[in-house]
């Protein structure tokens, strides 16, 4: 078996021991004689899987009892519509635009109500997080929306915006479970799991109970109504069962690793190694202002497109995969999610050093 160091932004690297455990259980899950993929979502073993997954996630994030945890389908992008459909009571929401994903979410929300773009970092190619201490929050805003970690640009909010009492909704797709969070500061936390938690096809929504309503936007599909999903405990229809099973295994892995505080420490150590190298390099340059750097996605460039392409190609040959930057920004990006081992970042930095010596 030969595994590469996979720096993909998502779907992304998963813990090897989770993959191995899933492989071991593939043909016969705990004596059922079938894999989790083949099993009824109404069966006892699956009921245990989803119940334990939720309990472990609640444990890890210290989710208060007045929040529901939903395991849904449709990816993070589907939530771009579900959020305004369910939450826009007054028909107004404020969006902070820190990258393509926030932009797309705002565009989608506009179909259902008035969207105010109250801050943006587009003037500098989303290389920073705008000052969110005193924003022009609309008195009628039903919520303030952020994308907490910007996968493409490599920025992360180090402090949550001052929403002046309005509900905060956050897309945490690319920083899910990477560090502790205070759930009580949010109305909704959601994310696709295919970066830090599991296989694509599952999205997790953590929502405060009082925001789950019956009087949603007229015509909201039954499946997109949080009430449908909350009342049915994510089993209104067939859920993404195998995805939930893998998420559950990753939650257990995270607990075993020491929980989110330990993950934060580990992630900071990995990111420091790479950022410290970038800060002294004569060839490579990070593209994000230091204060707003993400622990998860690290974009960098040489300043020369041909050299960037050469780097990506040679890195791949050296077993360092998926280092090409997002198609909209070019350059390179190393995604170093929870499951990326420290050794993977060490290998990347060693390779970058060598490349710099050869190409400067
Ligand atoms: N939000 C963020 C922060 C993302 O990084 C992505 C995917 N890269 C999305 C939303 C969209 O996710 P999905 O493909 O699951 O719809």
TrEMBL record:
Q: Where in the cell is it found?
A: Cytoplasm
Q: Which UniProt keywords apply?
A: Amino-acid biosynthesis, Aminotransferase, Cytoplasm, Pyridoxal phosphate, Serine biosynthesis, Transferase
Cofactor(s) required for function per UniProt:
pyridoxal 5'-phosphate
Q: What is its EC number?
A: 2.6.1.52
An example molecular function term from Gene Ontology annotations: O-phospho-L-serine:2-oxoglutarate aminotransferase activity
Q: Which reaction does it catalyse?
A: 4-(phosphooxy)-L-threonine + 2-oxoglutarate = (R)-3-hydroxy-2-oxo-4-phosphooxybutanoate + L-glutamate; O-phospho-L-serine + 2-oxoglutarate = 3-phosphooxypyruvate + L-glutamate
Tell me the residues on which N6-(pyridoxal phosphate)lysine occurs.
195
Q: Binding of pyridoxal 5'-phosphate: at which residues?
A: 76-77, 101, 151, 171, 194, 237-238
> What EC class is this?
transferase
Annotated coiled-coil positions are none
Q: Per its UniProt record, what InterPro entries does this chain match?
A: Aminotrans_V_dom, Pser_aminoTfrase, PyrdxlP-dep_Trfase, PyrdxlP-dep_Trfase_major, PyrdxlP-dep_Trfase_small
- Which pathway or pathways does this protein act in? Amino-acid biosynthesis; L-serine biosynthesis; L-serine from 3-phospho-D-glycerate: step 2/3
Free-text remark on how the cofactor is bound: Binds 1 pyridoxal phosphate per subunit.
What SUPFAM superfamilies does the record point to? Answer: PLP-dependent transferases
Q: Which residues form the Aminotransferase class V domain?
A: 4-348
Endpoints of the signal sequence: none
Q: Where does L-glutamate bind?
A: 42
Q: Which family does it belong to?
A: Belongs to the class-V pyridoxal-phosphate-dependent aminotransferase family. SerC subfamily.
Summary of the function given for this chain in its UniProt record? Catalyzes the reversible conversion of 3-phosphohydroxypyruvate to phosphoserine and of 3-hydroxy-2-oxo-4-phosphonooxybutanoate to phosphohydroxythreonine.
How does this polypeptide assemble, per the annotation?
Homodimer.
Question: Which HAMAP family does the entry link to?
Answer: SerC_aminotrans_5
The identity of this protein, by name, is Phosphoserine aminotransferase
């Amino acid at each position: 078996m030969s595994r590469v160091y996979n720096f993909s932004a998502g779907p992304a690297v998963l813990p090897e021991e989770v993959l191995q455990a899933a492989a071991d259980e593939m043909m016969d899950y705990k004596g059922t004689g079938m894999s989790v993929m083949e099993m009824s979502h109404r069966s006892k073993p699956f009921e245990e899987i989803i119940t334990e997954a939720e309990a472990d996630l609640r444990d890890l994030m210290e989710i208060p009892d007045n929040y529901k945890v939903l395991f849904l389908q449709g990816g993070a992008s589907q939530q771009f519509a579900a959020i305004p459909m369910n939450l826009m009571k007054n028909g107004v929401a404020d969006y902070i635009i820190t990258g393509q994903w926030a932009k797309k979410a705002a565009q989608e929300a506009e179909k259902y109500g008035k969207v105010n773009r109250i801050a943006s970092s587009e003037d500098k190619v989303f290389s920073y997080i705008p000052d969110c201490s005193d924003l022009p929050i609309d008195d009628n805003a039903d919520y303030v929306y952020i994308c907490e970690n910007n996968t493409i640009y490599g920025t992360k909010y180090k402090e949550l915006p001052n929403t002046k009492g309005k509900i905060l909704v956050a897309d945490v797709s690319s920083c899910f479970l990477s560090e502790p969070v205070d759930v009580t500061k949010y109305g909704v936390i959601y994310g696709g799991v295919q970066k830090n938690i599991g296989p694509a096809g599952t999205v997790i929504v953590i929502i405060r109970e009082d925001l789950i309503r019956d009087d949603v936007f007229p015509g909201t599909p039954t499946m997109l109504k949080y009430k449908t999903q909350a009342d049915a405990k994510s089993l209104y229809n067939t859920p993404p069962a195998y995805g939930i099973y893998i998420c559950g295994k990753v939650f257990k892995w995270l607990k075993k690793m020491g929980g989110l505080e330990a993950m934060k420490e580990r992630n900071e150590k990995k990111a420091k190694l790479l950022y410290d190298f970038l800060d002294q390099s004569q060839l490579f340059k990070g593209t994000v202002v230091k204060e707003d750097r993400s622990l998860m996605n690290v974009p960098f460039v040489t300043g020369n497109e041909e050299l960037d392409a050469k780097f990506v190609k040679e890195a791949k040959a050296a077993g360092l995969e998926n280092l090409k930057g997002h198609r909209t920004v070019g350059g390179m990006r190393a995604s170093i999610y929870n499951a990326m081992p420290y050794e993977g970042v060490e290998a990347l930095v060693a390779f970058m050093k060598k490349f710099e010596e050869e190409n400067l």
